[in-house]
User: Fold these one by one.
Assistant:
Number 1:
Amino acid sequence: MRLTLSNFVNYTSFMKFHYSILCILITFISYSQSVFDQDQVIEKTMSQRWELDDEDKNGTFKLTFYKPIFVLPARWSSNPNELPQSESLENSFTEVQNYDQVEAKFQLSLKTKLIQSFLFGHGDIWLGFTQLANWQVYNDPVSRPFRELNYEPELIVNFPMKVNLFGIDLRMAGLAFNHQSNGRDLPRSRSWNRIMFHAAFEKDNFQLYLKPWIRIESSDKDDNPAISEYIGRMEANAIYNKNKHSIYVIGKNSLDFDKNRGSLEINYLYSVKSNLRLHFQAFTGYGETLIDYNHKQTTLGIGISFIDW
């Protein structure tokens, strides 16, 4: 191929872009290794992650990890959502978007305790924040846009518990006010608010989180009126850790027996060094992101993970 000025500029831009991605990954890895032990896989109990027992209390306003933190440079979709729709016509696309089947996906998630041992010394209040990004990083014809960014702040009231139920321990329960949105204008805008209840169980290397919720109906215009019929009304997270291997499964369901919908996400992680892990992710169903809340697809992703549940 003949080298032209245009080709040279494109090649230079390409190399600068991938150098930036590499720098981001190195920063993540360095930070992860500086926080955690460098030779052993650090598996934290539910009490250590949520400071349930007295010996695990760490006070307030200290940032800790919340949901899994991962980077998937390659995520393939069986059915890219090129014409996002909503029951609200204002929030429906009229032109097909030129999206690639392969994009990048990453998630950041942190929490901090605002109040410790309130209500007669039995409860904690946490502030959590999660950001999920889907990036058309390989789609040069449309300037590599972020296809979707989801922001999820939540205020969590949590109560430590020690109740044995059929051989498994109920370790905590509570509720949260959860807001999720993509911060976009029309027709991309999607958002909803929920009161989420939770109960968490633990037995040896196994953890189970059950999260039913009630949607708070919007008094103004609703970006996605039927979102509960697709993403669902309940979530279950099952986590199993064994040596260098971790599996966590996230299932969501509409709890509607006539039109049963939801999603299933399976994650497998293998520890390379300490909390740096290879991460394989498979998703099928509705609502992988807010813009896809009523769009069904199957996706496969591969990358690295730094923190899991």
Number 2:
Amino acid sequence: MLTSIFPNKDLTDEQEQVLNDILEFTRQGLQSKQKSVFQLNGDAGTGKSVILTQLFLKLETFAKQNQNDNYFLVNHPELLKVYQENAGEFPQLRKNRFLRPTSFINRLHKIGKKADVVVIDEAHLLLSESDHYNNFMQQNQLEEIIKLSKVVILVFDARQVLKLKSFWSDQRLAQVIPKNIRFKTATLKAQMRMQAPVKIIKWIDDLTDDLQLDKLNQINSDYLSSDADYDFRIYKDAEKMYQDLRAKNNEIGESRIVATADYPSTLDGKKHYVNEGKFHLPWDQYNYSKVTWAQKPETINEIGSIYTVQGFDLNYVAVIIGPSIVHDGTDKIRIDVSKYEDQEAFKNRHENDIEKLEEAKRRIILNSMNVLLKRGIKGCFVYFHDQQIFQNLKR
């Protein structure tokens, strides 16, 4: 589940071309008097992080010859652990160059220096407003990083925006990136994580983009499924889905159950449970260890969240889609924002900065579904709290 962001993974022709384009862009940027920004776009599972890890390995190899000052940033504590762990496997890499964005910004302001190249994974997680609780005092993390760097390489996916305080869109991104700089973009198209046909990717995208419930072909007593090679199932019963997932985990490993943030959970040291009929399992706990949640064998007995598994690969993922997703009486769903329990995701101190606030909240919920549904390499199991959705698909 972690090899996808290991620096020596083989690249596809598409990825190799993009990597070479970024390297040439960076080489020219280091020689230019202008600041440079390269934006790499792509859906979840298209291999953006694969390119970044190989890019940074090459940059750090060159840095020893050219004395360049490079950093790799990611605003995701679980992913940061993986990058720092991987750094220990390669003598060219330095663990202290892998940082959270706030740490980087505060460090460089303190020492009064600027970086040569800064690589940002999951740039859609950067804060787009100040957050004093997390020691970010400026107004926008990307804006600060550009000020403190000569060349910035960032990965961006608008479908993975999960909080209002890090609310990004293509338009908002364009407003932050200065007009008088060298700027280039590339977009990865091929789905590399999910070994799924186009029809399954389309089913997920139609659901999370257009609220559309596409039909499935096969029906048995326990679930609806597709006739494709990819193991995609919609379950009527959450407990049955979980037991089938455990069987897959025993068979091939690296399989976990996750849920949308529609069930109460508080970081108070106590266990909080997701209950769906006979299904009864606790949310994941805050992970203080250096081992990621997804790597721990015992977490088959917990439910992962969007914050736990974003950016990770699983062989199989089982997704519980909670009460905020409601059948609308036709072949579509609707979003009930009031039932979404992760109100922290909706905290925003500058609400006037985001037009159509309620639509932004609905988009955050749909984004979280899209990310969760695209974790599984070999298969994805889905359960909807609203049983009318299952019945609609069955008809």
